[in-house]
Amino acid sequence: MTILGIETSCDETAISLIEHLEGRVRILGDALVSQTALHRPYGGVHPFMAKRAHQENLPRIYREALGRHREEDIDRIAVTQGPGLSPCLWQGIEFAKDIQRRTGAPIVPTNHVEGHILLPLLQEDGQILPDAFPALALVVSGGHTELVLAERIGRYRILGETADDAAGECLDKTARLLGLDYPGGPAIAEKAGEWASRGGIPANPPISLPRPMMNRSSYEFSFSGLKTAVLYDWQSRPESVRQSPDYVREMAFEIQRAVVDVLVAKTARGAESFPVRSVIIGGGVSANTELRARLRKALPSLRILAAPPSRSTDNGLMPALTAVLRPDPMLRPGESSSLAAAPSLRIE
Ligand code: KG4
Ligand code: ZN
């Protein structure tokens, strides 16, 4: 069985071709263009520029993912239906429908958040981890911050999510304030690492940031207060301090620590309150080394499952693998005309 996965929900145009045979997944093709350079001047994703870039990139990415394989070899077309940016999702969906018109292969519409949760089950040797569930999943990206109780594949309960900004969005926005590049997560991680390894002269008074909602018993998150606290601190410092590399490094370190503290505290509490076998982390922010290390330390007896950092951000394997593990609904030609983007699709 050969499955094509198309992902265009945000600012990555990605297509993967996989083979699923006797329980094992083999990656036949994996192509991706990231639009980060395009969105850098805006400090975030510009939906209509993203849509246009998807439109331009899809044919080339598709050819690259197919490689020496032929379009007729595709048995199933997986495409991210949502959640995501509507104009972007539509590009992928229309592209999937075009392939279906030519090949007759069924389309499996997939959920982007579920893709982030399922991808960490794929092991390096292509086997799918059989006994991960029940699991607690933390999905943290530029668009999502959700703690999900995954009883089994296809059965999810959202324990809590962010009331305002997503964790990655907070990193992106605060990085922009500090004059760092988009995407902000890796830029902040780099500066935080410099502060941790080299030290420096702390600001006077030293930077101190809140941990919003950390000690509440709920699993809800909120990151807009953290962003505001960063802004207030920045405004309170003289220009000479704001411009100094030490201030930027100290601030990056404190921002990363505040975000990681909150994510680890809530995830650890969830993992201790529900009878789970593993903790799954997915989404761009889950690439963060500090988050991974702190979670392992907080939950030493639980298995922490994460995709390799290069696959934590959006990619075509997410829809392709989802269509392997949960191949419904499967829309045959004639059934897919009403398939539409679902920008606010939920996994519950
Ligand atoms: O999953 P993703 O590619 O797209 C969405 O579905 O939103 O996640 C992108 C987010 C961005 O906010 C980016 O700053 C963040 O993931 N990110 C990171 C790291 N790499 C990407 N955040 C912290 N540490 C990283 N290493
Ligand atoms: Zn994502």
- Major β-sheet profile: 5 strands, mixed
| Proportion of helical residues | 40-55%
The average pLDDT score comes to 96
Distance between the termini: 28 Å
Radius of gyration: 21 Å
Query: What percent of residues are in strands?
Result: 15-25%
Counted beta strands: 10
Bound molecules: 5'-O-[(R)-(carboxyoxy)(hydroxy)phosphoryl]adenosine, zinc ion
| Helix/strand structural class | alpha/beta
Order of helices and strands: EEEHHEHEHEEEHHHHHEHEH
How are strands sequenced across the largest beta sheet? 3-2-1-4-5
The helix tally amounts to 11
Label the overall shape: globular
Residue stretches low in confidence (pLDDT < 50, at least 5 long) are none
Question: What this model shows, in words?
Answer:
The model has no long low-confidence stretch (mean pLDDT 96). The strands form two sheets. A five-stranded mixed β-sheet has the order 3-2-1-4-5, sandwiched between helices. A five-stranded mixed β-sheet has the order 8-7-6-9-10. Helices cover 40% and strands 20% of the residues. The protein is globular and about 65 Å long. It has 348 residues and is of the alpha/beta class. The structure holds 5'-O-[(R)-(carboxyoxy)(hydroxy)phosphoryl]adenosine and zinc ion (ZN). The site of zinc ion (ZN) has 5 residues, from α4. Zinc ion binds at residues 112, 116, 141, 283, 314.
Summarize the topology:
Elements: E1 2-7, E2 12-21, E3 24-34, H1 36-39, H2 47-66, E4 76-82, H3 86-103, E5 107-111, H4 112-118, E6 135-140, E7 145-152, E8 155-161, H5 167-177, H6 184-198, H7 224-236, H8 239-242, H9 245-273, E9 278-282, H10 289-298, E10 303-306, H11 317-325
Parallel strand pairs: 1-4, 4-5, 6-9, 9-10
Antiparallel strand pairs: 1-2, 2-3, 6-7, 7-8
Helix pairs in contact: 2-3, 4-11, 5-6, 5-7, 5-9, 6-9, 9-10
Bound molecules: 5'-O-[(R)-(carboxyoxy)(hydroxy)phosphoryl]adenosine (KG4) and zinc ion.
